[in-house]
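User: Run a structure prediction on this.
Assistant: Running it now.
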Amino acid sequence: MSGEERREKVLNVIRESDKPVSASALAKQFKVSRQIIVGDIALLRAGNIDILATNKGYIINARKDIVECVIKVKHKSEDIYDELCTIIDMGAKVVTEEIENDLYGRIVTEININSREDARLFSEKCLDASQRPLSELTRGVHYHRIKAEGDLAVIRVQKALNEKGYLAK
């Protein structure tokens, strides 16, 4: 078996495994030295294969592409918590809140809502009599920059917001 064929098979073993695969286990399986396997992994990485070395062996980095987009929403102040939880529950994070203002143009503020707890704390501040949400300047119309793992998560967010009547046209 050529080195290229072995590297292809090593890659398949790592991809198909549900746990890390050690260099020693790969060396035994392919009847080569551990150093040969370490070299094979280096060559695979050089070919843009995202292989991670852990203390238990090699794994393929299953990282999904992070998609960032801006969605336009409209709702009442009392719906802030529900809107943010809807986004979180569909697998996204809320990075910013933005509005378009005739006088100031686009106003952007980072809110970084990553959990229901973040959503609760933020919505409580918005409903505090001494503080008002930015979206009140635009009668509830605002934008959120969200981050999600893949396009499917973004689609789920938009669908859920639309079903609740929060997605603005």
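The chain has six helices and six strands.
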